[in-house]
Amino acid sequence: MDVSVSAPAREEGRGGIDRRAPPTRCAVITPALTKRATRGAPERRSPQSRLEEAVGLAAAIDLDVVYSATIPLSEIRPATFLGSGKVEELEGVVRAEAVDLVFFDAALSPVQQRNLEKAWSAKVVDRTALILEIFGMRARTKEGALQVELAHLNYQRSRLVRSWTHLERQRGGFGFLGGPGETQIEADRRLIGERIVRIEKELEQVKRTRGLHRASRKRVPYPIVALVGYTNAGKSTLFNRLTRAEVMAKDLLFATLDPTLRAVDLPHGTRIILSDTVGFISELPTQLVAAFRATLEEVLEADLILHVRDISHPDTDAQAADVSDVLEDLGVDPQPGGRVIEVWNKIDRLAPDEREQVENRAARGGAEAPVPVSALTGEGTDDLLGLIERRITAGRVTVSVTLAAEDGEGLGWLYRHGEVLERTTDEDGAIHVALRIPPDRAGLITRRFGARRVHPT
To answer: Where is the composition biased (Basic and acidic residues) (predicted)?
Structure first.
């Protein structure tokens, strides 16, 4: 995926970050807006935490971070975002450290990006561009690749406005038509627009296919349990622990991009489908929120949502608030007690006194209590599975079905469409099955086997 969104990069044909070459020397700049700049709105995170996350984003794409700093800022300058004195100071740093790329951890306008590149004689990428690049590296499925490309094209199209001045050249007219020809910027915009239309059509087909898959799963009524959480909260490690799968799980931002689903049998035999999803992050680029909505449809359809939190992280509350914001944007009530269960992960990283405090807080939570776990060691996962089963089966009804000895097909149908609690066989071979099912499936059971052979219990 190409993050070359500036005029100099395009003219020189430098393309995106070349991962075949030695690691690119990178400087990470995080502007820390003062209350004056944010008009009194409180920041959820400390400047140091934001800088650490920005360095983590750079590391996720194998950049060699040789310099990092937070820059206090009381006012955003239209031309360069930073003040002229700070731009000049950083120009010295870029030269002294032989920096090839500056990651500016904020959203830059095309003009700001171009002016900073000119001042520092280095490539500049903003938060949106870097996250797009990470997503491009992580996408493994056709759907993921299409979504990344769509988001990137929308980003590129926004960069065509007043930034690439070298594109203002006009092509000649055609014969008698006369008049000025199509400008290069118009041609680029048209080509990007055509590609966006094609990708959106392909994604619609993918969406229809996913809809068919969900419909088929509903006919085989396995409840869906979706994992959500801030990036690097440990969702994939927990997914692997619960499913014994081998999904990529690393101490890396955005290690998981494409959704993964696996069947899990709960302690008393209830089968669920567990879904691992892309991690959330603060200030997620709007292009990605729109493009990855299809990826998050598993969350919308889920019977239960496990909100996995890194309880050892100093910004765990701020991260939880960011996840709640995204869930609300998707139309999901983020409050525990409904469809959401909070899972407090990485308790193995806590000091003994901190761990005791966390476990005491969880114990006081009542019915909406979070579940402390360590996905790495397995601590607490049995309690989590038990709670999932209790929440999934709450409100279900139990029926008894009598089958003829030779009705193996009917017996298999019951196992596929409900939770078999007990099975006995009479001396004459008749089979009695106690079955737990959602209330809306009672009619389906009765129609399949007849009222005389189905008995509420």
So the answer is: 9-21
